[in-house]
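HUMAN: I'm a chemist; might I ask for a sequence paired with its structure tokens?

ASSISTANT:
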Amino acid sequence: MTHLPTHHIRQMSIADYDGVIGLMRSTPGVSFRDADSRDSTERYLLRNPGLSFVAVASDALVGCVMSGHDGRRGYLQHLMVLPSHRNQGIASSLVESCLGSLESLGILKSHIDVFQTNTLAQHYWEARGWKLRTDIRRYSFVRSGGDNA
């Protein structure tokens, strides 16, 4: 007997914003920043068309991942799957959608930032062959606004 998937993956649109933000706010280890505003998210999606995806099950948003690129490297962000829908291959399908779309643009290497306190995410990425970079340090600078930029 073949087990049919209980979800489908589709490109994310700004119409998914409220559902994605709901996922962000309810997923431990994921931060919600000023840069995650509706306007910023719409600008990101327009700048990186066809590179962010959502997972839908029974007409409800159950997962998300956003990605973009700088012309050389891909960047994945905000991989989230509702706990009730984990271990069904949804995260892997979302990630593969991003990586396949990036590859079609000639982007063969991608990065993701994971909080040092998010051990669940660290285990997820490492189990799938992603390598922890210890040779670089990321520095951030906020030009204006607050610490939550």
In short: Residues 90-104 form the longest helix (15 residues).
